[in-house]
């Protein structure tokens, strides 16, 4: 006797709106965002090793979107605006790509500029 499959049971499993809800924990969004920041910073540092303090990420999920705030230390000299933009874009891409949740805002706060790779 075959096991349950598509179309078996009450039929509600085949209708996307009736399958239930998925709740992604805030810490999952924060970890995805932190990883995205580290990727950008690793590419920005000359030796490919991000220096300075790790990024501090906080998220809020007002409804069906996510808002991310990230505090970073960036290399100096560098194009600060371009790096902040790259961080913002990478976070939005990763969160949407991995969770399907739309990102309403990404706030990048530059806490410190780190010269010569010294932390």
Whole-Å distance between the termini? 64 Å
Summarize model confidence as the mean pLDDT. Answer: 84
Radius of gyration: 19 Å
| SSE arrangement, N to C | HEEHE
Give the neighbour order of strands across the main sheet.
Answer: 1-2-3
Poorly predicted runs are none
Which bin fits the share of residues in helices? 25-40%
Shape: elongated
Number of strands: 3
Question: What is the level-2 CATH architecture name?
Answer: 2-Layer Sandwich
How many structural domains can be distinguished in the coordinates? 1
Our count of helices gives: 2
User: What is the fold-level CATH name, i.e. the topology?
Assistant: Alpha-Beta Plaits
Protein name: Asp23/Gls24 family envelope stress response protein
Q: Would you mind describing this structure in some detail?
A:
This protein has a single domain, classed as Cation efflux protein, cytoplasmic domain (Alpha-Beta Plaits), CATH 3.30.70.1350. Helices cover 33% and strands 26% of the residues. The chain contains 2 helices and 3 strands; from the N terminus they run αββαβ. It has a 3-stranded mixed sheet with strand order 1-2-3, covered by helices on one side. Strand 1 and strand 2 form a beta hairpin. The longest helix is centred in the C-terminal third of the chain and has 20 residues. It is elongated and about 55 Å long.
How are the SSEs placed, and which strands pair?
Blueprint (H helix, E strand, L loop, with lengths): L25 H19 L11 E5 L4 E12 L3 H20 L2 E14 L4
Parallel strand pairs: 2-3
Antiparallel strand pairs: 1-2
Question: Can you give me a brief rundown of this structure?
Answer:
The protein has 119 residues and is an alpha+beta fold. It is built from two helices and three strands, in the order αββαβ. This is Asp23/Gls24 family envelope stress response protein.
């Amino acid at each position: 006797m075959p096991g349950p499959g598509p179309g078996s049971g009450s039929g509600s499993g085949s209708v996307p709106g009736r399958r239930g809800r998925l709740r992604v924990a805030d810490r999952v969004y924060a970890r995805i965002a932190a990883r995205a920041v580290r990727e950008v910073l690793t590419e920005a540092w000359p030796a490919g090793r991000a220096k300075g303090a790790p990024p501090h990420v906080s998220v809020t999920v007002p409804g069906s979107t996510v808002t991310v705030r990230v505090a970073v230390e960036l290399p100096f000299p560098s194009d600060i605006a371009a790096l902040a933009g790259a961080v913002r874009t990478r976070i939005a891409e990763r969160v949407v790509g991995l969770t399907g949740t739309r990102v309403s805002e990404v706030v990048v706060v530059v806490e410190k500029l780190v010269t010569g790779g010294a932390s």
